[in-house]
């Protein structure tokens, strides 16, 4: 009977398996790389003004846009605190990613904010000659006429603008990072 002999040198394969096992034993470096990637991906998301699935964020309301003084062309950006407070933290075998800003969840999921009724002093300018009171508020320093006003309770509706998460492209990139750690000689 004719035969064939196949010799298999498992040293290279065993080295890959050992490197993958070492990466799984201490995944912190891999998780830190994924955290860095997520910072970049979310920065790009704020630049594109779109949710992880690519849906553009809902436009600002005309009333808010009228009074917004800074970054009028940007949604979810007034001073940049939400975008600039994104952080990641690696603990044992987990990666935590997000913001410490309380309003981050409201911006992501949407919701309503109930404002209670209140009374306060309002300041105006009064014309010295005619006695007419202007119809715009001014600072206390610029005012020469003050009046107590009562503002009724009202609700502000915040639309959902999903900003936190990963897209399909992000999934592939994260899988690529993991692959580099699990199979370091394959790159």
From TrEMBL:
Q: Which InterPro entries match?
A: Phage_virion_morphogenesis (IPR006522)
User: Protein name, please?
Assistant: Phage virion morphogenesis (Putative tail completion) protein
The source organism is Pseudomonas sihuiensis
């Amino acid at each position: 009977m004719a035969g064939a002999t196949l010799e298999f040198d498992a040293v290279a394969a065993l080295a890959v398996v050992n490197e993958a096992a070492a990466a799984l034993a201490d995944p912190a470096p891999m998780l830190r790389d994924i955290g860095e990637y997520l910072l970049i991906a979310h920065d790009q998301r704020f630049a594109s003004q779109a949710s992880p699935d690519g849906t553009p964020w809902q436009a600002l309301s005309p009333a808010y846009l009228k009074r917004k003084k800074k970054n009028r062309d940007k949604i979810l950006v007034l001073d940049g605190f939400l975008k600039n407070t994104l952080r990641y933290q690696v603990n044992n075998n987990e990666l935590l990613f997000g913001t410490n800003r309380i309003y981050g969840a409201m911006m992501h999921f949407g919701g309503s904010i109930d404002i209670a009724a209140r009374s306060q002093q309002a300041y105006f300018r009064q014309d010295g000659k005619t006695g007419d009171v202007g119809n715009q508020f001014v600072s206390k320093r610029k005012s020469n006429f003050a009046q107590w006003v009562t503002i009724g309770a009202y609700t502000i509706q915040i639309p959902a603008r999903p900003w936190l998460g990963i897209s399909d492209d992000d999934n592939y990139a994260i899988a690529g990072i993991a692959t580099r750690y699990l199979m370091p000689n394959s790159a």
